Structure formats: structure tokens, C-alpha cells
């Protein structure tokens, strides 16, 4: 069946109520494959690949693929939903700082001697806090929905592009890559660029914004003592950079070892007849176990 999201109202999309019929069905019996609706047209592999290929053709060819050319193509093809998540994240971050002001207003209201005025002020700030928390929840879920969906589209675009390219390689070019390496590009590298990276790119501006606003608020309340936390962060920053570099270095080594292991397995499968004929099973088993270690 067609996706109910495509015919849902803006309020239904905001609250995700368009998924309620499927959830109600799941509470009554196990959900079968025929109960799950089809993907939205914008999420199908065919449409995602078509949008990316159209954007990629517009990029200039200078003999090598630059990362910013790939970024521009992905942004043009599937960046609208990712960019839409930016304002949602900004408003959510702003509402995140309503809670301290609301709690301070409640505490000030409790100190008011007039009982009626105290109750009125406390209820006002409690209402503001409640509305703020509800809006934060809605905005944050829609932010992650849009970024995760955009990251899946990016992964789909890369996987289909790599697969199409592998089918068009000449024999000399294809000889430089094994099937295992192609699979690694589609399963590991595309996933690292998509779901492991795209949903968190907004933190490049959101993180500093939250730190600056929090420091300003703490400075107003605590004075220069608020910068003690900032000092600890700056002291730990070189350690974090060092650990991150070590992690990246270890990941690169791991990927090289994984490629070597996949290449070895591919060679064994390709020459399995000769291995069985000459009884080389134990010898190649040792090579595989050594590669895994």
C-alpha cells in the first residue's frame, strides 16, 4: 500500500500520528510484511539514484573526484530535508534554555508573600516550562526524523552509484578491485558517510551555540567562576584530539586488514578447485586465520 505519510496533514506529520494505524495493528497481532506500507516516492532507491545522478553530471570533471564535489552533488540531490532540520534544531536549542529561567521564576514566586500572586506566578512559569518541554520533544523528534531520513537517502545514493560504476568498469580497472572491496565500499564506507555522519553535522554549529549561551547564562549567575568548566574543557581538548586521531588511525588499519581478509577469501573462492585438487585446505586455512588475527 502507498505510504500514508504522503497524504497526511502537516499536523499529522508533526506528531507522527500517520503511523498510528500500523502501531494499533501491531498491538493486536504480529505485523506481517504485507501490512507495512511502501516507501514514500522520494525515498525509493530509483528516485534517490536518479536525483543524485542528475546532480553528479553537473559537477565538473578534472580527472579526480574531490570530496566537495561529492558533497555538492549530495546536497543538491537530497539536502533539502537536511537543511530543513537546521531551523528545527535551532529552535529546540533555544527552548532548551527556557527551563532555567522558568525554574528561577517558580523559585521567585514561592518567595512572594501574597499567596494569590505567588500561585499565579508559579503556575505561569510551570505552564511555560510544560509547553517548552513539549515543543522540545516535538522539534527534536522531527529533527532526527529529517536528518536520519536524509542520511538514509545519502547512503542509498552512494550505494547505487558505486554499484552502477562497478558494472561499467573496464577489465583493467575492475582487476584493481575485488568483489569484497566493492562490498566494503557499499556496506561500510557508504554507511559511515550516511547514517554515521549526516545526522550529526548540525552539531558543528549547534554545539558552539549551546556552549556560548550556557557560558553567558552562567556568567550572569556565578561571575567568572563559570569559566572554570570552560577551562577544564580546554585542558581536555588536546587529550580528546589525540584520542580521536588514534581512533581514526586504528580504524584505517582495521579497514586495511578487513580489505586484505576479504581479498584473500575472494581468491580462495575463485581458486577453490585447485585448492581441493592439491589438498591445500590447511595451508589456506592458516592464511585466513592469520589474516583474521
Distance between the termini: 48 Å
> What is the percentage of strand-forming residues?
under 5%
Q: Using only CA atoms, what is the Rg?
A: 27 Å
Helix content: over 70%
Low-confidence stretches: none
Topology as a string of helices (H) and strands (E): HHHHHHHHHHHH
Specify the biggest β-sheet. Answer: none
The helix/strand class is mainly alpha
What's the β-strand tally? Answer: 0
CA-based shape: extended
Topology summary:
Blueprint (H helix, E strand, L loop, with lengths): L9 H6 L4 H9 L16 H13 L9 H30 L1 H13 L4 H54 L2 H4 L4 H15 L9 H20 L4 H44 L1 H6 L3 H12 L1
Helix pairs in contact: 3-4, 3-6, 4-6, 5-6, 6-8, 8-10, 10-12
Task: Describe the fold and architecture.
The chain has 293 residues and is mainly α. The protein is built from 12 helices and no strands. Helix content is 77%, strand content 0%. The two termini are 48 Å apart.
List keywords for this structure.
extended, 293 residues, 0% strand, mainly alpha, 12 helices
Sum this structure up briefly:
This protein is mainly α and 293 residues long.
Amino acid at each position: 500500500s502507498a505510504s500514508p505519510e504522503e497524504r497526511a496533514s502537516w499536523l499529522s506529520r508533526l506528531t507522527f500520528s500517520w503511523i498510528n494505524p500500523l502501531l494499533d495493528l501491531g498491538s493486536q497481532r504480529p505485523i506481517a510484511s504485507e501490512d507495512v506500507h511502501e516507501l514514500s516516492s522520494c525515498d525509493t532507491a530509483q528516485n534517490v539514484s536518479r536525483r543524485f545522478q542528475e546532480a553528479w553530471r553537473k559537477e565538473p570533471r578534472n580527472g579526480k573526484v574531490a570530496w566537495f564535489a561529492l558533497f555538492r552533488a549530495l546536497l543538491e540531490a537530497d539536502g533539502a530535508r537536511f537543511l530543513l532540520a537546521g531551523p528545527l534544531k535551532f529552535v529546540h536549542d533555544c527552548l532548551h534554555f527556557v527551563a532555567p529561567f522558568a525554574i528561577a521564576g517558580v523559585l521567585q514566586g514561592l518567595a512572594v508573600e501574597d499567596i494569590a500572586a505567588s500561585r499565579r506566578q508559579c503556575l505561569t512559569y510551570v505552564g511555560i516550562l510544560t509547553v517548552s518541554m513539549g515543543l522540545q520533544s516535538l522539534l527534536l523528534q522531527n529533527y532526527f526524523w529529517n536528518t536520519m531520513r536524509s542520511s538514509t537517502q545519502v547512503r542509498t545514493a552512494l550505494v547505487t552509484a558505486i554499484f552502477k560504476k562497478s558494472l561499467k568498469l573496464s577489465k583493467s580497472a575492475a582487476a584493481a578491485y575485488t568483489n569484497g572491496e566493492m562490498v566494503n565500499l557499499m556496506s561500510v564506507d557508504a554507511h559511515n558517510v550516511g547514517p554515521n555522519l549526516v545526522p550529526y553535522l548540525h552539531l558543528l554549529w549547534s554545539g558552539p551555540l549551546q556552549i556560548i549561551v550556557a557560558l553567558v547564562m552562567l556568567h550572569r549567575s556565578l561571575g567568572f567562576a563559570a569559566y572554570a568548566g570552560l577551562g577544564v574543557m580546554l585542558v581536555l581538548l588536546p587529550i580528546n584530539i589525540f584520542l580521536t586521531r588514534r581512533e581514526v588511525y586504528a580504524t584505517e588499519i582495521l579497514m586495511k586488514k578487513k580489505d586484505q581478509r576479504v581479498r584473500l577469501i575472494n581468491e580462495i573462492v575463485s581458486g577453490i578447485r585447485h585448492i581441493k585438487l592439491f589438498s591445500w585446505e590447511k595451508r589456506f586455512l592458516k592464511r585466513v586465520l592469520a589474516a583474521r588475527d
